[in-house]
């Protein structure tokens, strides 16, 4: 629009978006103070699906808490489990066989692709294009089938164990994954042709919801949101863990900071994940998937431990305070969506409601992970 | 006189049946089309290829409770869905399907369709306003500004065609285009004139009929990811059903008008066997295009929509009007 609109603070009404609204994809509530179709102020209200995951950890032993991790961000559950097992392994000094590390990286990256595919479909649906969702879910179905065969579940995985894995991968999985990588490359080309370069989509995303690098740092935003604003930070590269240093992959970074930049970052991340999967399959060593010696009961020595991993939505950190007991004294989850979401209040002022909801889609919010 | 009255009554009943059947089966076609575009089967459960889905849906809608929420403006709330459906049925009375199949041809048929067509925006405004729902209100305000913005270029392009045909009579407009596809108004050559903007006119008219019927990518009135369901958020049962059917009836009217004004009505593309079947084929091709567009493009925003109308479509159509007038005067 050509001229900036001067908003009238005394001629507003309050629009309650959510907790049940098609665009919030969950139970997020946004109290918008509107001047016509322009947003004067927006207040996010969270906590509708709070389940006290952090408190639950204090009453459970370390292995018992494993399934909880996949209930945070149900779309990229694998990365959250990865963060937790890494934290406990580091603290309890449990050795992990190399094969297990590679399989972990492969499955985490597959899960990242499936998470981004859901975002892609849901985001374009927020913009009013329904069909890409079906195509994205079709591709995602292949990942879910592959992971189901290995892990036993389709969404809320509990595949990683301290020091290893629940189950070894077989040749079918490796074959299937190679086939999937080929298929996914083709699909991504199609998505770029049909969606990324669509005029209406570009017009709706370019320059909409600009988030500066300074703002990202102020709110602690990470992941594709920060990388779309020119912050070159990825936990896999900056604080390497597991076998990620062995892989050759790029971190897509864009400086524009608008919704289109975030869109492109995620689309390119899928390509990079495919590269990691391919390399992982090539390098996959033989050997055991669980350590020979594993303590019967996991007890962490007293202390304060923090580990971060790159989840689908940003840097997921887990801090464990142990007093040497069978369960943690305190467990703190740093979930990326929680930080990313708080950008919304400040960034959406003066935006049209349609643009604001597109902007919200580009932040890729998963509400259960935010509320924990 | 009495014979005419009976004729009109019969025509209205047939028109209602035609509109209802079309609305019901366009929903089926839309769902099948969406399925085809999205690599899935669409409805399959009821009847062969899911063909019994529309009656089942209809029965479901009718047996639902008709809920009138507290706080709504009751009279307007009840009238609005009726008003959404009524003009579309009346419009069918003057639409000629072929030389003989027309309920009641009047010499200002085109004008009448536009008059009734503009009433649908009124229905949306009434429905949205009386609902006392903020989403509905935003939606109805959007719908009105959209209807105003898109009726103007639509009317101007229609006037261009009327000038070429020299009549507001839909029959006459079709007759002027008969004799093969090269006589249709969509082409730049008209009666010895070379009017380069005629294909653009056709596109403008088509885009406007998309916007007039609130179809994607211009479905801002019921933008579900922003406004939940827009003006019919508070409607249930057949109140919603009437709005829904009205939308599909408007699609059929839009396709009929486009066919009559630009694609030669029931005229055969090769000048052979003109008849109602050509008309049917043409409108369903257009309707399929409507469906195709809906499931392919994302939605625009209200401001880019208005910009498109006021800054692009209206100037082009006005220029075309002047050009056509000048050419008709000179030659």
TrEMBL record, chain A:
All residue ranges annotated as the NADH-quinone oxidoreductase subunit D domain in the record: 126-295, 297-372
A single Gene Ontology CC term: plasma membrane
Compartment annotation: Cell membrane
Keyword NAD (UniProt): yes
Membrane topology: Peripheral membrane protein
Top-level taxon: Bacteria
Keyword field contains NAD: yes
Catalysed reactions listed for this entry: a quinone + NADH + 5 H(+)(in) = a quinol + NAD(+) + 4 H(+)(out)
EC number: 7.1.1.-
Molecular function via GO: NAD binding; NADH dehydrogenase (quinone) (non-electrogenic) activity; quinone binding
Chief site of localization: membrane
Entry-linked Pfam families: Complex1_49kDa
UniProt entry keywords in alphabetical sequence: Cell membrane, Membrane, NAD, Quinone, Translocase, Transport, Ubiquinone
Function: NDH-1 shuttles electrons from NADH, via FMN and iron-sulfur (Fe-S) centers, to quinones in the respiratory chain. The immediate electron acceptor for the enzyme in this species is believed to be ubiquinone. Couples the redox reaction to proton translocation (for every two electrons transferred, four hydrogen ions are translocated across the cytoplasmic membrane), and thus conserves the redox energy in a proton gradient.
PANTHER family for this protein: NADH DEHYDROGENASE [UBIQUINONE] IRON-SULFUR PROTEIN 2, MITOCHONDRIAL, NADH-UBIQUINONE OXIDOREDUCTASE 49 KDA SUBUNIT
Family the entry assigns: Belongs to the complex I 49 kDa subunit family.
Quaternary structure (record): NDH-1 is composed of 14 different subunits. Subunits NuoB, C, D, E, F, and G constitute the peripheral sector of the complex.
Name under which the protein is recorded: NADH-quinone oxidoreductase subunit D
Species the sequence originates in: Desulfoprunum benzoelyticum
From TrEMBL, chain B:
Domain of life of the organism encoding this protein: Bacteria
Catalytic activity, reaction form: a quinone + NADH + 5 H(+)(in) = a quinol + NAD(+) + 4 H(+)(out)
GO molecular function: NADH dehydrogenase activity; oxidoreductase activity, acting on NAD(P)H, quinone or similar compound as acceptor; quinone binding
Subcellular location: Cell membrane; Membrane
TM stretches of this protein: 6-29, 75-95, 101-126, 147-168, 192-211, 248-266, 272-293, 305-328
Topological category with respect to the lipid bilayer: Multi-pass membrane protein
E.C. no: 7.1.1.-
Keywords in alphabetical order: Cell membrane, Membrane, NAD, Quinone, Translocase, Transmembrane, Transmembrane helix, Ubiquinone
One BP annotation, GO: aerobic respiration
Keyword check for ATP-binding: no
Keyword presence, NAD: yes
GO-annotated cellular components: plasma membrane
InterPro entries linked to this entry: NADH_UbQ_OxRdtase_su1/FPO, NADH_UbQ_OxRdtase_su1_CS
Family membership: Belongs to the complex I subunit 1 family.
HAMAP family noted in UniProt: NDH1_NuoH
Annotated NCBIfam families: PRK06076.1-2
Quaternary data: NDH-1 is composed of 14 different subunits. Subunits NuoA, H, J, K, L, M, N constitute the membrane sector of the complex.
Function: NDH-1 shuttles electrons from NADH, via FMN and iron-sulfur (Fe-S) centers, to quinones in the respiratory chain. The immediate electron acceptor for the enzyme in this species is believed to be ubiquinone. Couples the redox reaction to proton translocation (for every two electrons transferred, four hydrogen ions are translocated across the cytoplasmic membrane), and thus conserves the redox energy in a proton gradient. This subunit may bind ubiquinone.
Name of protein: NADH-quinone oxidoreductase subunit H
Biological source species: Desulfoprunum benzoelyticum
Organism classification: Bacteria, Pseudomonadati, Thermodesulfobacteriota, Desulfobulbia, Desulfobulbales
Gene that encodes it: nuoH
